[in-house]
């Protein structure tokens, strides 16, 4: 098992920030830890990486108990915290050597490891530049480089694409995918689409508890909302739309676009709406499933979790 947490729970004050977090990762790939702000992602990651001591529960990395054998377990973990721990007055080379030493790498292996990781992360051409003179995207690459320099089994990244511009995000995602070819990556995000793009599996956490843990495909099936968005040139009155079998509610998001809530099969209701549009001359321009926004999915999932 690459990572196993058992009933991981943590209190900063009198209330539980996370409670009974059980994670099992047996296979390589990218696993997303998805949750809104304050859900408990950073707390979970900090504990897994040994930078925060849990109140209760256990962490095993590569079957090594992190509490009992912290040095051994930490050799198997790379960590990119939410704020990358960069020393901006060092050059990339100096910083990476320093990180390799912190990771207790053997002296004679450090030079080659630094070279390799610079190549891998696309920062070799800036090797002697001070980190403070790098753009946000390159700083993030340096942060990623330090997390894999000692070739850990598990790389943990806390919101690694947060604060990057769209191009930098694309580059960072590409790099994360490449890293996942050799390492298992656990990365957190509060953006559903980001997790969707990158991950094989998703663990969703809300209010400090896991509310969903399964494959991305299973999540998407679950998150499929029971509403469609319909754009028409000549939309009818709400009452007309409500006559279509299965339609349970209608709200207009603009004068030409309506959100149609329904019960039952999306395909059948969509077919009926299309037929009604043709018959009624509504001049349908577009009809699409309305994917639930993250908050709605959270709500659904937390209700399920409470049942
Ligand atoms: N040092 C701390 N002292 C007290 N409470 C804290 C501390 N750090 C986090 N918390 C609380 O613990 C809960 C979980 O926070 P955590 O930072 O783990 O969430 P998160 O999902 O990572 O959110 P974000 O994306 O905003 O970082 C929140 O209610 C937060 O206010």
From TrEMBL:
PROSITE patterns: ABC_TRANSPORTER_2
Keywords annotated in UniProt: ATP-binding, Nucleotide-binding, Transport
Coiled coil: none
A molecular-function term among this protein's GO annotations: ATP binding
Keyword ATP-binding among UniProt keywords: yes
Similarity remark: Belongs to the ABC transporter superfamily.
Protein's name according to its UniProt entry: ABC transporter ATP-binding protein
């Amino acid at each position: 098992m690459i990572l196993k947490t058992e009933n991981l729970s943590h209190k900063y004050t009198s209330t539980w920030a996370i409670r009974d977090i059980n994670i099992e990762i047996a296979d390589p790939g990218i696993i997303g830890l998805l949750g809104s702000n304050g859900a408990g992602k950073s707390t979970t990651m900090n504990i897994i990486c040994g930078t925060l001591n849990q109140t209760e529960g256990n962490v095993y990395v590569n079957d090594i108990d992190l509490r009992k054998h912290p040095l051994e377990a930490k050799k198997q973990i790379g960590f990119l915290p939410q704020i990358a721990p960069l020393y901006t007055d060092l050059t990339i080379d100096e910083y990476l050597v320093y990180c390799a030493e912190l990771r207790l790498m053997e002296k004679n292996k450090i030079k080659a490891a630094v070279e390799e990781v610079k190549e891998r992360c696309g920062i070799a051409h800036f090797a002697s530049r001070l980190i403070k003179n790098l753009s946000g995207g390159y700083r993030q690459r340096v942060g990623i480089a330090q997390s894999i320099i000692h070739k850990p089994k598990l790389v943990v990244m806390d919101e690694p694409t947060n604060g990057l511009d769209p191009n930098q995000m694309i580059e960072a995602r590409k790099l994360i995918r490449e890293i996942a070819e050799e390492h298992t990556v656990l990365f957190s995000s509060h953006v559903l689409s980001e997790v969707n793009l990158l991950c094989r599996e998703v663990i969703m956490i809300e209010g400090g508890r896991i509310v969903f843990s399964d494959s991305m495909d299973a999540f998407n099936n679950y998150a499929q909302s029971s509403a469609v968005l319909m754009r028409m040139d000549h939309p009818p009155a709400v009452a007309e739309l409500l006559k279509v079998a299965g339609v349970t509610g209608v709200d207009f998001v603009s004068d030409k676009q309506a959100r149609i809530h329904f019960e039952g099969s999306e395909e059948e209701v969509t077919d009926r709406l299309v037929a009604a549009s043709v018959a009624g001359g509504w001049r349908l321009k577009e009809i699409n499933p309305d994917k639930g926004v993250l908050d709605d999915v959270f709500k659904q999932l937390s209700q399920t979790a409470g049942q």
